Amino acid sequence: MESRIQLTPKDLQKAFGFHPEHSRRMIRGIKSDLGLGKKGILTIKAYCEYSCIDLDEFLEAIKVKLP
After folding, report:
1. Quick check: helix, strand or coil at residue 64?
2. Are 31 and 42 in contact (CB under 8 A)?
3. Residues 1/63, Cβ–Cβ less than 8 Å
């Protein structure tokens, strides 16, 4: 199990089966809503809070552990 904090489009593909472009658009939209800008980092925890998803369940679905 890898250890990292940044959410990637591949994570959304693994967890939900989204198309790669849909995953990228979702991340861009959430970063915009949170005021992170283009270069900002969207963390897995911030994504789960924003989306009202249980953090532990999401981490299990994408096979990642937080450092």
Report:
1. strand
2. yes
3. yes
